[in-house]
Every structure is written in C-alpha cells, then in structure tokens.
Amino acid sequence: MPPPYAWFMGVAFVAHCLLNQNSKVGDGAHCAGVYSPMVDVLRAKGWRIEQMPCPELAFAGLNRFWAVREQYDTAAFRRHCKRLSAAVADVIAVRVEQGEDVVLIGIEGSPSMGVTITSSDPERGGRPEWPDGTAEQVSGEGIFVEELRAALESRGIGFPRVAGETHAIPGHDEAVQRARLESVLDNRPPRSADGA
Amino acid sequence: MAPDARSFRVALVADRYVNPPPGGTDGLAAAADAGWGVLQLPAEDYPARLAGPLLAEVAEQAEEFRRHGYDLVLVGERDGLAEALAQVGLALPDSIVPGSATELSRILRGRPAPAATGHSGTGQTNEK
To answer: Which pLDDT value is given to residue A4?
Structure first.
C-alpha cells in the first residue's frame, strides 16, 4: 500500500535546513532543529516530505562564511550541485511518473536554495568585512535550484511550483510566509481523467 | 541579530518516521519537541539506483557534523546506510527504534551533551 502522504496529497521537496537548522551557516539557525512553522503546514495538509541535501554544508562545511551567489558560482560548486540535483531530480522524476503532485520549498535569499530571491554582490570577496544589511538580495534562483531546473529539464520534467522560507528577507512575516506556502500547496494543477 | 539557536544534535531518521503512516510514530514531531535536527533517510521502497546517491550525501553531511562534535543518532534503520557511512569513515551512530513519539522525544532529550557547544566560527567547543 503506498504511503498515504505520497498517494493522497503530493510530495514536497524541502530545503535541508527546514528539517535541520544545524546545517545553517553560523548565526543563521532560527531554532534548535526542525523549523516547525513551515513543516507544520506541510503536515497539516498531508504532504509527504522529502528533504534535499544542503549544497553548502558538504561543500564549504559548518565553518563557512556567509556568502553571496557570485562567491559560490564556481565550476567546482556547480559540479557539486549537478551531482546533488541529479539525485534529487531522479526521485522527482519517479514521483511525477507516478502522477504525484510535486512542490519545491526553498530558502529565499539563499545563494544556493533561493527559489525566487537569491543574493548577489559582484564586488564581494577578499577580507570578510562588510556592513550588515540585505542590499544584496535580488530576484532569481540559487545555484542548486538552477541546476535542479536543468536536471529536470533534461529529463523532460516541468519545474514544480515553489515556495520559500523568508527569514532572510526584510519584513519577514511568519503569517505571510505560511499563507504563501498554503497557497502554493493548494494550487494543484488539474488532473486528466486517467489520473495522470 | 538573534543568537544562533542550533542544538548541535542531529538525528538520522528513517523515512517511515518522517512520513509516518496513520497511527505511526511521528519522528519529526519528536525531534522538533526535543530540539533535534533531522537528516532524513531515503524511503525504504526506493531502489538502490535512487537511494544510493541520497545515502552518499547523507553520509557526507553526517561526516561534517561528526567532525565538529555534533551528536548523531540513528532513528530506525535503512539498508545501505552502514556502507555509505563506512565510505566516509563513520560507524553507525547509536540507534533508537522508538515505540512512540513521546518515547523518542524522551530518549533524545536524555542524550549526553554534544561535544560541540559553539556554532561555526566561534571556536567554542568543549571537545576533550
């Protein structure tokens, strides 16, 4: 018998840190472990959860600096993300082939996991001294998300609907974050008569 | 800026506890209650073609946590995990097969303090 979460609702592929804030860059963990405000929504709506790997953790380690997209956009990090995204895309492909609804839950403002907002500052580098602030945030996807898009495209699979955790975004509002996630989860595409 | 709130505790959790069937043990709720992070293991019914690469990434991430003194435990089991961890020089961590979320939360809360006590960059650890 198929798992009820997968069969009846859909599968949410979530950024690693939503289940494990220990993976965050230093000073970035909002809670001890599981980030419940978004996980609770997925649970309440009966979505199966699939945790994606953290692209930055295994590549740059727990002692990594805060960084923008340009600093991670190296050939080596792209190769790393291609490897991770291939593993994730293969699982998404199976779910899609089974006719299951899929969404992607990223981290807005992240250089790797941003789904509509990433970070950018072409000048950043060298001695790590810069003023606090969020001026580097721009519209766009993080590097892992870009590579996942390419991996799905190469498999003939459309990109899923997306939502993002928004702690790093100015004016973050947990109620707005929740409403956006619920909207994405509820906005299911119509199914054909054969259930595909 | 709010202080870093991480717990330095990470549970490798079998999929059936992350996505429990009706009436099953909710490992995610237990981890949240006890303040542990979760590294989800691939679903039991995933073939090696899908599970192998995912297990390799789980092992690499577990290795990084272990190197920094984070506490690791295994909740449930997963074929291929021991081999994947061995590839990065890790043994299986202490394992728990919980009978309920309450029991799991209690066990996680009762673990000894992890060696790491400072987040990345602070250099604060109590490793002996």
So the answer is: 44
**How far is the C-alpha of B21 from the C-alpha of A48, rounded, in Å?**
10
Q: What is the 3-state secondary structure (H, E, C) of A128-181?
A: CCCCCCCCCEEECCCHHHHHHHHHHHHCCCCCCEEEEECCCCCCCCHHHHHHHH
CA distance A53 to chain B (A): 7
Residue of B nearest to A89 (CA): B50
Which residues of chain A, if any, have pLDDT below 50?
Answer: 1-7, 193-196
CA A11, chain centre distance (Å)? 13
Angle at which helices B48-67 and A75-97 cross, to 10°: 140
Q: Cβ contacts (< 8 Å) between B27 and chain A: which residues?
A: none
User: Can you tell me the distance from the alpha carbon of A45 to that of A5, in angstroms, rounded to the nearest whole number?
Assistant: 9
Asked whether residue B118 carries a pLDDT value surpassing 90, the answer given is no
Answer yes or no: do B1 and A27 touch at CB < 8 A.
yes
Nearest Cα residue to B51 out of A144, A15, A88, A85: A88
Chain B contact probe: residue of A16, A30, A34 with most B CBs at under 10 A? A34
Asked if residues B42 and B15 have their Cβ atoms less than 8 Å apart, the reply is: yes
Spatial distance between the Cα atoms of A180 and A184, rounded to a whole number of angstroms: 6
Distance from CA of B107 to the nearest CA of A (A): 16
- Which pTM does this prediction carry? 0.89
Q: Do A90 and B57 touch (CB under 8 A)?
A: no
Of A20, A26, A94, the CB nearest to B39: A20
Geometric angle at alpha carbon B117, from B88 and B26, rounded to 5°:
70
Q: What are phi and psi of A100, to 5 degrees?
A: -90, 150
| CA B114 centroid distance within chain | 13
Q: Report ipTM for this prediction.
A: 0.92
- Report domain B9-109's class: alpha beta
Pairing of strands A48-51, A161-165: unpaired
